[in-house]
Amino acid sequence: MGVSSDGILVFGFEIESDEYGDGGYPDFLIDTNGDDSTIDFDDFVLEKAGYDGHGCDYDAKRKVIEACPADLTMHCSYDFPMYILAVRGTEIRASRGHPTKITQEQLSISQERIDAFKKWCVSVGILHQEPEWILCSMYG
Description:
Elements: E1 5-14, H1 41-48, H2 58-67, E2 70-77, E3 81-87, E4 92-95, H3 104-107, H4 111-123, E5 132-139
Parallel strand pairs: 2-5
Antiparallel strand pairs: 1-3, 1-4, 1-5, 2-3
């Protein structure tokens, strides 16, 4: 088994830990037990949307998550993860050895989607910059 890297193009902004003081991250990136197992953006979205968590209605949970205008992209490597908060649905990946064609349609993001993303970030207390296209990689 070898090691591969993926190219990732995504529209959003990098989350820098020093922006949150005392070397911290936003709530959804806080790793409380040292193995990244507590980092779960979907759980954060559900909590912020007021999902009560009763039962296991996966369709209802999925609808809440998909309605969120933001998504989290991990890049760098699994051993040393870094994160980009992005407009949902803008991540484009190319696996090593498999070129990916990108259409103009994929690169077109409505101002309405961008505004909804920025408004959501403010509503949940996430510091943000203006979103932009970011090209990064994931080494795994």
